[in-house]
Amino acid sequence: MKTENLKELITNLRNEILLRYVFPEIAESINQYLESKLDEGGYSTFHQPEDLADAITADLQRISNDEHLRVRYFPEAHQPETEGETIYEQNNRQAHVENISFGIAKIEFLEGNIGYIDIRELVEHARSAEYISAAMTLLSKSKALIIDLRKCCGGDPATVAWLCSYFFKERTALSALHIRDQGIVEQYHTYDWVPGQRFGEEKPIYLLLAHYTFSGAEMLAYDLQTRGRATLIGETTGGGAHACKFHWPTPHFSLLLPGARPINPITQSNWEKTGVTPDIEVNANDALTTAHELALTHTKSPL
């Protein structure tokens, strides 16, 4: 990579991290490290941009102990969105979310009228709300509900609130976000009104977790667990609480940057680095069978 391009990349990374990273003192440590490494020519030995991105990511995560921080290289230059729109890694975000079925991999009715939904990404609320509403209406008459988050990478806190709205009768406070660069706290609640049918707050819900479960998926699990609304089954999750946004320090390099930390109204804390601990700990591969058996027992349905 040319010296001037490398300097631009590192300088812009430093500026974004200093301004926005959730912990200012760690941001300063990262800034000093990147400055020193650039001055020493530490990144100049990388001839492939993918290798450079991996090396920077490893350094950022080592200093911060934050798996959210990530740099990626893309051969195709990033195309800036319309002013005011949220930035994503994909040049065509809508096409991407359509290809992943708006984050919903499967909806199924298991034996005993136990509803099952496999969520792989909690896609931003503006794009996914109607599909989540349709799914929840379809599942609303199930005797119990299993939400599979074992392969869920995370997503939008507003989508977490939208989905949770189908599980409570009254407006319920969920985790808030303290946004560092704005100096504000954004509070999330369940919505007073949602379309379709609510699942309700009486029937049992089981959430399936794996170590892979991360970020917004952990927020969903943590909020429902602290409210006593779901039983969590599986493995302790990855421990990525901080909310992130994408930035583009150069047109070919993206930066995933945590800029906000959740504050749960019950615990006044979050799951950063500790993960969300399941109520019933089993191997992730066995979590669905365990949840189904519990659901059948709870609803007194025969095996």
Automatic annotation (TrEMBL):
It comes from the Bacteria. InterPro entries: ClpP/crotonase-like_dom_sf (IPR029045), Tail-specific_protease (IPR005151). Residues 80-283 form the Tail specific protease domain. This is S41 family peptidase. It comes from Parachitinimonas caeni.
